[in-house]
Amino acid sequence: MATVLRNSLSLLAFAACICFAQTGGRGLLPAPPPSAYQESGSHPEKPFVPISGEHAFSRSVFQEPSGPANTRIEVVDLVIAPRQSLQMPAGAGPVVIDLRSGTGTVSAGTRLSGLSLQSPVSVAAGFPFAIKNPGLLPLMVRLYKVEGK
Amino acid sequence: MSRCIRRVRLLAAFGLTRRALLTALVCAPALADAQTAAPGASSQRMLAPHATATVRHSETLDVPQAGGASIPVQVELGSWHLTGKKAEIQIPPQGDYIAELRNGEVQTVVDGGAPTVRHSGDLWTVKSGQTMTVTITGLRQNSALIRIFTIKPQ
Predict the structure, then answer these.
(1) Quick check: A64 contacting B, CB < 8 Å?
(2) What is this model's ipTM?
């Protein structure tokens, strides 16, 4: 009888240990009431906006309407979700793609180039291109678009 | 006897060291040349006192114009590393460029104009022929990194 009781207690203790290990001894807190959500009141000056139909976000951070040699320059930031790619239409001018964080590749036509911090990639005018993020973290690139006027 | 053996060993070691030194002296310039000529290596140069410039990428691109013709332009991506708190670092004209402050806070004066405080992430343009004076003004900040996108007509 004592043996059965001891075995039962051991089983209970073992089950409790497993439950503790799975939840970490903690559970989820109850959701706060809607009135508890308060905005900070400050919004980013140039927020990222989702690109429709793509797993990516973009924001135009700078524009120079009167560049040298009758050009117009736009600086655009892109964020591409992990394991996703972004198709970009052909631009009116060349684009220089500079890696900011993450890992990625750029393909334009038959050319495939890897992005690295030390070697930006450029795409000639009139070529559509795709930026692929094979990594597990978001890929962030900066695009320098140079267009003629 | 043992002293004699020790002396011989010392002489042999010295001979080897001397040979290695001579080899290093002969090969060092060649290795240095190989390093500077390595493909893909970024070039570094003094821009001004307290300022070093590094070029990561340089390329000539064709920019189509509205009329149909294309204009070749040289684009460069690089960075400037500035040091010296409160020092007025005068950057000589570098052509047309877009600058982006990557850390801290600086004050810039472009071509003798009004001083402007720039924060991390700010972008601004400097035109061809303009000088820019940069002063590091951030609290406990002794250096600043500025990313540069230069565009020059060919």
Answers:
(1) yes
(2) 0.73
